[in-house]
Write a structure and sequence with these properties.
This protein is an alpha/beta fold. The protein has 2 domains: 5-347, 3-Layer(aba) Sandwich (Rossmann fold); 364-528, START domain (Alpha-D-Glucose-1,6-Bisphosphate, Chain A, domain 4, 2-Layer Sandwich), CATH 3.30.530. It has helices at residues 51-62, 98-101, 120-138, 158-171, 191-202, 221-233, 252-262, 278-288, 293-302, 313-317, 325-338, 383-390, 403-415, 489-523, 525-528; strands at 5-15, 21-32, 42-46, 66-71, 87-90, 106-109, 142-148, 177-182, 185-186, 205-208, 215-216, 219-220, 241-244, 250-251, 269-272, 371-379, 436-437, 440-446, 450-455, 461-472, 476-487.
Length: 537
């Protein structure tokens, strides 16, 4: 740790539902003077399965740093290209971090609990406090945190207030902190970019509140990653709060217009109205975009805040070319079109499964009722071909038949505040544990043997969709498709009875489509490319 500096009191306020401000907390932030930070030997990255963390690891390795990743579910990184080049520690920032910090010189704090629960702000405070104390106890040399722009003395939203509060908590410890603050991050798979993309693509005309005129300084994700890596080599960034942004200041309306031009869409009509509450705006965003309401609401609330860089520290200390907003949009659209989206906001689990929740393999005698739809098919294709077909379902590929039923179910889920069907997939062919597939989450993958999806839609219970493969020699395979549901109370059982008639259309067609495509794939490219629309609507 570095000694020498001064203590500064930082006061934070929260905006209440009625628009008034109330004191939140006062932190004593330690400001380090003349910090000298040695080159890191071991770098700890939290949030390595998330949008920024998953991409940062590759950049750190490319620069020759040794990397350790702290993740709750190591299986989510099984297919990461850098998996065998890093040390993985299973753990949580809310738990004991002694092992995670052992021998660590620098730690990145890239954890965000937004939308995870109704008390996500309190959870963020608890996580940051635990991380700060663990870093101090281990004698870490430096912490690096990615937060959000916004004036400390402004009327900040709950989202930005929490981002600033986390930074203040980390800085209140003895370990020097570099806090980078960014506005909207533009890149394939980022939550803010996906929200903007769907609003522009889905709606040819929009009735918008005044926030479309709010000024913002968007930044390309590759520039965010460059800054996150460069701070390691620039000791003058230690102990500082540094705003980072792209080369332009734009309004959200201008950002929408440029996106429409780059996506080759007709010019969008934007009608501004003086009164449209953040709640109504977030309900509309939650319905039209892939973001669930729990995530859309705090993001929309933040759109009223001007988020621009007020001082040039970033470009002075870490000079380099910056992508314009138009260039960033163009690159993001190119990655989406080519299926090269390495990480996505949807990869972060909102809430997660608790330890007491049922598993799909729990028997009836464990205390829960299991309702199931079981179907079996013998496929004239080897298990690898069947497995590849199953791991391509969802997203633009769809669910083979009765797509209107899937769409209706997705719309109902969006209205109820769930993710709906618009999350799609990170990659059109590849799946990883933890990936989102429409309103499912990949829970388990065993190549050529098992694919299990867990439902994240709003349900009175817990649901899974699973395929188990049994090879029958080298050319055939038996597929066992099972939809399981653990109902919660009377409403759970009523729900299952209500949707059971639709299962007679959806699940047989799904299995038949998998059988058909797997057999075509086994016969070769010509068969695979013929009659792709058979059986669909």
């Amino acid at each position: 740790m570095v000694e020498g500096g001064r203590t500064v009191a930082i006061s934070l306020q929260r905006r209440r539902a009625d628009g008034r401000r109330e004191p939140l907390a006062v932190f004593n932030s330690f400001v380090h003077d003349d910090v000298e930070v040695p080159s890191p030997g071991l770098v700890l990255v939290t949030g390595a399965s998330g949008y920024i963390g998953g991409r940062l690891v590759s950049e750190l390795l490319a620069e020759g740093y040794r990397v350790r990743c702290l993740v709750r579910s190591p299986d989510k990184l099984a297919d990461a290209v850098w998996r065998d080049e890093v040390e993985l520690i299973r753990g949580d920032v809310e738990a004991d971090l002694t092992e995670a910090f052992d021998g660590v010189d620098v730690a990145y704090y890239l954890v965000h609990a937004i939308g995870a629960s109704s008390d996500w702000e309190a959870r963020e405070r608890q996580q940051a406090t635990n991380f700060r104390d663990a870093a101090a106890a281990a004698g870490a040399g430096r912490l690096i945190y990615l937060g959000g722009l916004g004036d400390d003395d402004g009327d900040l939203s709950s989202h930005l207030t929490s981002r600033h509060e986390v930074g203040a908590i980390l800085r209140s410890g003895p370990v020097p902190v570099t806090e980078l603050r960014a506005a909207v991050i533009i890149g394939s798979g980022s939550a803010s970019f996906e929200m903007l993309r769907y609003l522009v693509e889905v709606l040819p005309a929009m009735v918008t509140p005044r926030w479309v005129r709010t000024r913002c300084q968007p930044i390309a994700v590759r520039d965010v990653l460059r800054y996150l890596v460069q701070v390691l080599a620039e000791p003058r960034t230690a102990g500082r709060v540094i705003g980072i942004g792209g080369p332009e200041v734009l309004t959200y309306e201008e950002m929408m217009r440029i996106y429409a031009e780059e996506a080759r869409l007709r010019r969008r009509l934007v009608v501004r109205v003086p009164v449209l509450s953040p709640r109504l705006s977030s309900l509309w965003v939650g319905l039209v975009t892939p973001l669930p309401l729990s995530l859309a609401r705090p993001l929309v609330d933040s759109l009223v805040n001007e988020v621009i860089v007020r001082e040039p520290a970033a470009v002075d200390l870490m000079p380099g070319p910056l992508l314009t907003y138009r260039e960033a949009v163009r690159l993001a659209l190119g990655r989406i079109a080519s299926g090269r989206v390495t990480t996505s906001w949807a990869g972060a689990e909102l809430g997660g499964r608790g330890p007491a929740d049922p598993m799909p393999t729990d028997p009836d005698w464990s205390g829960g009722t299991v309702l199931a739809d079981r179907r079996t098919a013998t496929v004239d294709a080897p298990a690898p071909a069947v497995y590849r077909t199953i791991t391509a379902v969802g997203g633009r590929q769809g669910w083979y038949s009765s797509e209107w039923l899937w769409s209706i179910r997705g719309l109902a889920d969006k209205v109820a505040g769930g993710p709906g069907m618009r999350r799609g997939r990170r990659d059109p062919r590849d799946l990883r544990v933890g990936d989102a597939v429409d309103f499912w989450r990949v829970e388990e993958l065993v190549p050529d043997q098992l694919v299990r999806l867990r439902a994240e839609m709003r349900l009175p219970g817990a649901a899974w969709l699973e395929w188990r493969l049994e090879p029958q020699g080298d050319e055939r395979c038996v597929v066992h498709q099972t939809a399981r549901f653990h109902p919660r109370g009377l409403w759970g059982r009523a729900y299952w009875l209500g949707v059971a008639p639709f299962h007679r259309f959806v699940f047989p067609a799904l299995l038949a489509g998998i059988e058909r495509d797997a057999e075509r794939a086994a016969r070769g490219p010509e068969a695979r490319n013929s009659d792709r629309g058979e059986g669909g609507l």
